[in-house]
Amino acid sequence: NEVKGIGALKNSLNRLEEEINESGYVLVDLMGRDYNDGMISEARFVEDSSVPPGREIVTDVLKPQINYNGQLIQAAKIEVGKSYD
Q: How far is it, in rounded angstroms, from Cα 38 to Cα 48?
């Protein structure tokens, strides 16, 4: 927030995303979601002690999932945190 021009950059990114969505493209936000084996994605699993035991949570999105008119056109590349305790 202390970087000069960050507000203008955020506004530009928001306008760009709105235009993309109006064209039928959707960037699916997977961050923080529970991971399941049925997800169409490339997943890398990492140890994360902040994740409750027995759960697997998307902790980073390296490449977003993109849908066009409801159809998947780019699978996500994600990092999934899990507790190994």
A: 22
